[in-house]
Specification:
The chain contains twelve helices and nine strands. With about 350 residues, it is an alpha+beta fold.
């Protein structure tokens, strides 16, 4: 069974399998709302497949809201319903990457953020910043976007020691152990690496406490033109860490996303705060797109004109891949745990 089919079957199965494991067992109202909301989610996603990009954001966003209601019905202990979006756009006139979405009171966005363990955002965030924080979308940037992207994070599954082990062979003190990871960045190798690190590190909460593995010269490595890697390390939290403990350490910094071993560092939008999860980041983007499609249809249609708009192909791609990604993230939200698929082979 391929991943897409497994997710579709999994979503259908959750209509019954979650009842005894969640708050659904305590309330007929929750159970009925859960079933109706997931049915609406499924129908909205099916509708999104047959319409064009001109109206697809509306189906995707409202389908996601209904899936969110199913999540709160299943998992939120107290007040689990909502009756407003909890979001607002103050100005739809800027170019799409610069349109900002901000929280507004307490509504669906806040309730589902809490239900799924996503950090609540309090500031306005531009669509361009949200877009660039999502791994699939960094591959297709919007025209005029300048925000920091999600970057590939390759974690080592074993601890390491610096230098040659034989240096400590006659020393009673065991060598210090470290956890290592490489970050891959799609830009030219910096000439001033110290300045680059000073600017780069604060943008990514997952690198808190990291230090270079070795010297500046040794820790930077060019992969190919406009792509290089940097080796970082952290002191191991204890000696002889098991693989599961190491994975847990990195899960809190760069969680695996959709596929086994696919980890990404995502930039922060607010100081000392993790970004919203990919599910809630897509929620914010789709809210913005649905508002533009509904209230600025001319602007939205012009942005989708592949003969005139430099962002049209990227917008189409984002809305196409959402049909695959959103059900996956919804299933994870319902289960409240990651569902990692085998990576498809590339030929």
């Amino acid at each position: 069974m391929d991943g897409t089919t497994a997710i579709r079957v999994g979503l259908r199965h959750r209509r019954t399998s979650l009842t005894d494991k969640t708050k659904l067992k305590d309330s007929a109202s929750r159970r009925k709302t859960f079933a109706a909301a997931l049915q609406q989610f499924e129908e909205q996603m099916n509708a999104a497949k047959v319409v064009t990009a001109a109206t697809r954001p509306i189906n995707l966003y409202y389908g996601l809201v209904q899936a969110g209601l199913a999540m709160t019905a299943a998992h939120v202990p107290d007040t689990w319903t909502f009756n407003k979006h909890g979001l607002k756009i103050l100005d739809m006139e800027p170019d799409i990457p610069h349109v900002a979405v901000r929280p507004d009171g307490v509504g669906a966005f806040q309730a589902v953020s809490d239900a799924t363990g996503s950090e609540r955002t309090t500031d306005a965030i531009t669509i361009g910043s949200l877009w660039n924080s999502i791994p699939e979308l960094t591959e297709a940037p919007l025209d005029g976007m300048t925000s920091d992207p999600a970057v590939t994070f390759i974690a080592d599954s074993q601890t390491s020691v610096q230098g040659e082990v034989v240096r400590w062979s006659t020393n009673s003190a065991p060598p210090a152990e470290y956890l290592r990871a490489a970050v891959c960045v799609n830009e030219e190798m910096p000439t001033d690496r110290k300045a680059w690190l000073a600017a780069f590190l604060p943008k990514y909460p997952g690198l808190h406490g990291a230090q270079l593995w070795g010297s500046e010269e040794d820790s930077f490595s060019e992969i190919h033109s406009r792509r290089f890697s940097v080796e970082f390390c952290w002191p191991a939290t204890k000696r002889d860490m098991e693989k599961a403990d190491i994975a847990g350490f990195f899960d809190s910094r760069a969680p695996a996303y959709r596929f086994n071993a696919d980890r990404f560092l995502r930039p922060s939008f607010e100081p000392a705060k993790a970004p919203p999860t990919p599910l809630m980041s897509r929620w914010l983007i789709l809210y913005g797109f649905s508002m533009l499609a509904r209230y600025q249809p001319r602007k939205w249609s012009e942005a989708l004109d592949v003969d005139k708009s430099p962002s049209a192909a990227a917008l189409e791609y984002a809305l196409d891949i959402a049909l695959e990604v959103i059900p996956h993230l919804v299933l994870e939200g319902l289960d409240q745990e990651p569902l990692l698929l085998a990576k498809p082979m590339a030929f």
